[in-house]
Amino acid sequence: MKKNILPLVVVFLCLGMVSSSYATEKKQVKLSRKERKQILKNLAPQYKRWLDMTYHISLKEERDVFLSLKNDKDRNIFIRSFWLQRDPTPGTTDNEYKMELEKRFIYVQKYFKRGSSKPGWMTDMGKFYMILGKPNSIERFDSKPGLYPAQVWYYFGDKTLGLPTYFSVMYYKPNNSTEWKFYNPS
User: Fold this and answer.
1) DSSP state of 56
2) How far apart, in whole angstroms, are the C-alpha atoms of residue 90 and residue 83?
3) What are the angstrom distances between the C-alpha of 48 and each of 35, 95, 176?
């Protein structure tokens, strides 16, 4: 029994340390665009990568607090607590969500960069892939006369997360551009 409780105690202690040491900072963090740019310029590559990977699943406030940290020790504690808060099975050694997000990030960087001037995670397809994961099925409309090339990604939703049972996301290439854009009819 104690063996199962120990990881939870560590999680709560770590979260307590992070939340108490950053609580006052979080309220005071107001980074200008210029300050954010300067901090990012001087940030070590592993932290830039982490920010890129978690951009679509993190809160702006979390990113601002992270960027305001002054040393790598605090950054590492912050990252550890970030993943602990999102661990679907906190009593185990693996964080399945973190591992899944890392796989998604590698995939979008490799495949969604093609035809775009942006990194894969910043493309419309990359953004949805990072958040929703691999679609259950894809329908392509590549060479239909009178239509832009299009793709429809279909997903099974999770009602507990407020998603419909089944939904789709559509992308198109306007004017035969090389980058897929999210289609939003509104």
Assistant:
1) T
2) 10
3) 15, 21, 33
Backbone angles phi, psi at 157, to 5 degrees: -90, 170
Instruction: Give the pLDDT of the chain (186 residues) as one tens digit per residue.
Output: 334 443 433 334 344 444 444 444 445 677 888 988 999 999 999 999 999 999 999 999 999 999 999 999 999 999 999 999 999 999 899 999 999 999 999 999 999 988 888 999 999 999 999 999 999 999 999 877 888 899 999 999 888 888 899 999 999 998 868 899 999 988
- Secondary structure in 3-state letters for 92-132: CCCCHHHHHHHHHHHHHHHHCCCCCCCCHHHCHHHHHHHHH
Residue 151 is classified by DSSP as: E
The amino acid that residue 72 corresponds to is: D
CA distances from 32 to 41, 48, 67, 71, 97 (A): 14, 18, 11, 20, 31
Give whole-number Cα distances, 42 to 30, 67, 79, 127, 135, in Å. 18, 11, 18, 25, 36
pTM to 2 decimal places: 0.79
